[in-house]
Amino acid sequence: MESQQWRRPRLNNYALACALLASTNSILLGYDIGVMSGAALFIKQDLKISSVQQEILVGSLNLFSLIGSLAAGKTSDCIGRRYTIVLAAATFFVGALLMGLAPSYPYLIAGRAVAGVGVGYSLMIAPLYTAEVSPAVTRGFLTSLPEVFINVGILLGYILNFALSGLSPSFNWRLMLGLAAVPAVAIACGVMAMPESPRWLVMKGRIPEAKAVLRRTSESDGEAESRLEEITKAASTASNGNSDSSGGGGGWHGQGVWRELLCPSPPLRRVLVAALGINFFMQASGNDAVVYYTPAVFESAGIRSRRGLVGVTVIMGVVKTSFVLISALFLDHYGRRPLLLLGSMGQAISLGGLGLGSKYLERRAHKPMWAIALCVVTVCADVSFFSIGLGPITWVYSSEIFPMRLRAQGTSLAVSVNRLVSGVVSMTFLSVSKKISFGGTFFVLGGIMVVATIFFYFLLPETRGKSLEEIEELFQDKDPKTIASTMTEMT
């Protein structure tokens, strides 16, 4: 019976096309993460940079993406979701060119700064747009597509690392980084074929246009009318509840939102705790750092060949991408909470195993093959569980739990926390590992994932199958016992 109910919802082809076009922007971040893990080896060799400079190079993109993610909320409220995606691709294009043509380390950092701003815009806007366009029954799958494309980008980066690693170290890393400019152009052109978000159109008072989009993303005119009525009602409530906003009119540009976010009501405070918490733990899990520094981890484990190091990362990329696809396909069947809890518990166990393997290898001059294999398997397990849980679900959850009028800038704030933590972890990973060893670092990350599992269990209610407006009501409930009861039922 459960299986039959799951098959009933049909994937709307137009909504799928919109989600795919919006999500392609995420390839740019994934490509940078994947390609930089290998390029950093050759940059260090060519430009003779220190380990600290390498950390700054890797982590700076994440810190500068904080600027883009903070600005993206206001930008998307003013110019729309679609043009914000175009702006993200254009900014990354400029950054990729600067990195590819960089004659020295300072120029390379400048390119990372510009590309980082584009990444910040992209990470915030792609899942937000997709959540606002998608029908409730398939929103989990469609909104997880940005994470799928991030992993596709990571895998492409790994493959190009492997393909170009045989070239001269003074040339190959420039080609690796500069090639990201090519998909950026294609993405910016493709996004122009997308419609605008119906919820943004309603907030701007453009009801007929919103209705036309909803008709194409719904299975029937009746469903489209019902969705429009729900969205219009939510927009009207938001407008009446805030005197500074002209919520349903064309003069609305997101004014008054930051004041509400910084001085939240109790229901909004619950939303903020959930959104900021899941974004914090996504990056505190160390996944970005593990992906960036996998070659360094395996080098310390005993794999010495540059081509061998890059080859192992390709295997990891294939595994990571496969599992995020599995998670996306089952997200609307099993729900957010079960997969999130499975992923975080799996990461905690995997990181513990990786810590044990690394600690054993640190104490041995001779590196036994079984211990190296253990490290490879547990790294693959860690990124796989991340791809099942935190990877896709963070973007889905962040983009669907904020009230409509606060959604863009609220999501922007949550993604900013994500980028800040990612930057700090990426820029300190090697330094911390030198102090307490790779094994010690992995034990710490495993402990963080234990705390994350407890946080998710008690503070994140299930949102599967609910419209964005119904989710708003879920967080309005002021009775903690009712919220706990709802979470237990959904689990």
TrEMBL record:
Superkingdom of origin: Eukaryota
PROSITE patterns found in the cross-reference section: MFS (PS50850), SUGAR_TRANSPORT_1 (PS00216), SUGAR_TRANSPORT_2 (PS00217)
- Where does this one sit in the cell? Membrane
Annotated membrane topology: Multi-pass membrane protein
Q: InterPro entries this protein is in?
A: MFS_dom, MFS_sugar_transport-like, MFS_trans_sf, STP/PLT_plant, Sugar/inositol_transpt, Sugar_transporter_CS
Membrane-crossing residues?
Answer: 12-31, 51-71, 83-101, 107-129, 141-163, 175-194, 309-331, 337-357, 369-397, 436-460
* UniProt cross-references to SUPFAM superfamilies, sorted A to Z: MFS general substrate transporter
Principal location: membrane
Q: List keywords of the entry alphabetically.
A: Membrane, Sugar transport, Symport, Transmembrane, Transmembrane helix, Transport
Q: What is an example of a GO molecular function annotated in this UniProt entry?
A: carbohydrate transmembrane transporter activity
Q: Which stretches make up the Major facilitator superfamily (MFS) profile domain?
A: 18-464
Q: Where is the signal peptide?
A: none
Q: Which family does it belong to?
A: Belongs to the major facilitator superfamily. Sugar transporter (TC 2.A.1.1) family.
What is the recorded name of this protein? Polyol/monosaccharide transporter 5
Native species: Perilla frutescens var. hirtella (Perilla citriodora)
